[in-house]
Fold this sequence. Notes:
It is a single chain. This protein has 16 helices and 4 strands. The chain has helices at residues 34-77, 85-92, 100-110, 112-130, 136-151, 153-164, 170-196, 206-228, 242-256, 266-272, 276-305, 310-337, 342-361, 365-392, 397-421, 431-465, and strands at 8-11, 14-17, 24-25, 28-29. Helix 1 packs across helix 11 (276-305), helix 4 (112-130) packs antiparallel against helix 8 (206-228) and helix 11 packs antiparallel against helix 16 (431-465). The chain is globular.
Amino acid sequence: MTSENHASEKVGGAESVHIEDGRQMNGLIYGIDEAHQKRVIRRIDIRLLPILGLMYAISLIDRSNYSLAYVSGMAIDLRLDIGQRYTILVLVFFIGCIFEIPSNMVMQRAGTANWLTFLGIGFGAVNIGMGFSNTWQEMAVCRTILGVLEAGFIPGCIYLITCWYTRFEVGKRLAIFWIGSIIINAFANMLSYALALLKGTHGLNGWRWIFIIEGSITVGLCIIGWFLLIDFPTKSDSLLSPEEKQFVIDRINNDRGDGDDDPMTLRRVLRHLKDWKLYVWSFNLMATTVPAFAYGYFKTIILTGMGYSVLEAQLLSIPPDIFGAVIALISGWLSDRYKIRGPIIIVHQLVTAAGMLIFSYTKAEGVRYCGLFLAGGGFQYCIPGILAFQSNNIISQSKRGVAAATCMLGGSIGGIIASVSFKSSEIPYYNTGIWVAFGVSILSICLILMMDLYFWKQNKNARERGILLEGLPGWYYTL
């Protein structure tokens, strides 16, 4: 169940690489000793993870404030009680998912700071515009543009993070990136509630202030992010000295052979898209985001449907989110420590499915609330876990960018499925949506077992017959 790396050994929190041409002598790599290595990795962590996590948290807030706006007057003002208008507004957001791969291609050329800042300022401005929408059609246009701008943001973040770290450093770092957004988003619900209390200020209803002020915060933070974001390792002159940059590139090359530039051309993209494994990971993420999007969009409505006030629903939504963040961090650490991905994801998917069945079919409010804990604790790790799973089994920077985008494309499709299967007519139990989520989760588990079996056989053949996997000696798939 472990993936091997013949070219590296653990040194504290970092890894000390064995350079084949003899440039490592007496524990030094280009004059960088072990303590210096750890400082370099720590500096990368500090410059990369907090700002990306914060910017992504803001984009997540822009999405999840939708359900609170619904119960804070938007449903009445825009007449979302007619037909499937609310479902349509949820659905059109995901049209933009087709821009995920092109966005990563642009980011590689435009630079991470320029492109991610542009996207962030863009979706922040659109959120401000949503606060001034007077009809549900205007809101639908804003939601569509928002989806286009946000489509490239998280694939870009994942692409950048996975290019900086070795395979068994990336699991916990993706979890840290993810849980930061979970925690911020949990407490941001209280901000949204407070903004809703501005109802009547300057003649605007409370839900409008949610979009206007949170959109303004997004624009401001993304402008700050432009000054802090770092680029890919080969373009990191502002962060690292030449010796430090070479150390980072060499350790990645010795771990998986793709530390150097590998431009995303159309020909390479099309070649990478022929790999069947990308679509399995995409489906896996889709199976996770069906309950995740449902949880984000409908948990406030579910809790108010259980008889709680809007304020009580916001307060009660925080503990399950914090619980999910803690579990995600623990599982991310364990997956790196024991070098496994698939089995841990399977456990979390089973817990998610159980939690959703509990809060859908149990009548007792306390038990239903426990179901929210199980569901949140289950799926929150699955997203960074699946992203780490696919990242560990991919070689080349260009394929890494394509894989991140195709994986998140599956996530967006999960959002579409959630928006149409969790029907407003079934409030607050959503029986159809629950069973759809349960079904795709079970199928995802079967696909992970199939892929792990395939990887195990490939690794066995490589060890026994000397076959090169992905063209790299001593490299093995991660189960």
